[in-house]
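Why does this matter for the project? Reviewers at the last site visit asked to see concrete outputs rather than summary tables. In response, this paragraph embeds two records directly. Each consists of the residue sequence and, immediately after it, the corresponding structure tokens. Nothing has been edited or filtered.
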Amino acid sequence: MRALIFILLAAAFWVFLGSTLQWVAALAGVFMAVLLYFYLRKGLLSTIFDKGWGGWKDPISAVFGIVRYFWTVAISNVRVARLIIDFRRPVRPAVLKVYVGEIGELEQTIVANSITLTPGTITVDFSDDGQYMYVHVLEADDVDAARRALLGHLETHFGRGLKWWKSP
């Protein structure tokens, strides 16, 4: 039953993202949802299904974190657009080394993707021990201020130590 609910919700999300109500889009959504279910069922989904929302430290905070993240992406889009429009303004890019602590591979992936999806930033690499992340920022007039802003972003959206998710 849980699998069916997951597949139906994922398929509905697929159709919503496609913004069309054609039967081909719905069929493709069901197909992709089934593939996603079989890919995630041993890891993430089994943790959620077996423990309820116990894998999440606080599901309400996770929802608010996602909303805050989308707001950050919108603001970053405006800043990058201003850089493009005001082409005479010099761009001062930098690569920042940011301490993230010991986090698992799942957390690394989520944090790296959230930074990379934010316009003007891209995650370049993690150190071999996984405690440092290298991030390229498009606009860094002051490197220390940019590093503090990035750490503030991480703490706001992911919490101290980035352990908002208990890895399976």
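We now turn to the second protein, recorded in exactly the same manner.
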Amino acid sequence: MEEPPWDEALAAWRELEERVESGTEAQMMRLHQANVLLFQGELDSAEAMLQENFQGVLASQQDRLLARLERLRNPPPPPPEPVEPVVEEPELVAAADAAPVEYLPYDPYFRVPEFRPVTILEPTQVGSEAVMDYVGETVPEQGTPGLASDPQDEPAEEETDVITE
């Protein structure tokens, strides 16, 4: 559909307004008419129709139509045309394209982990026990500081029977 038949829609809403019985229904028909008038570009006619004091839910619809009327009367300015940047100091642009610094200062608290390839012969499940076994094999006698000990590794306490009366 190229252009909706606004004149027919406006006539239909006016005819429906004549047939309604309640004031609320008549106000609803006038809001529809104002909407059609906004689509037609008849801003003054739409504004005159929206001057009425609409009630309840219809008041919020009236506010929406008045906001649309305001936007149609005062459209936002078009976005500015894109501007090509002007490079007045080409040496700064050339410096920005320079290679990264190859030397980094030594930081004794930062160590890059050493990669050691491992050959996995068969898939296995890895749990905390397997990790601790691996750590024990690779770092003998150093332990793992900061990790809580496993309760299974601690010797069991002897159970004694205590009778209370």
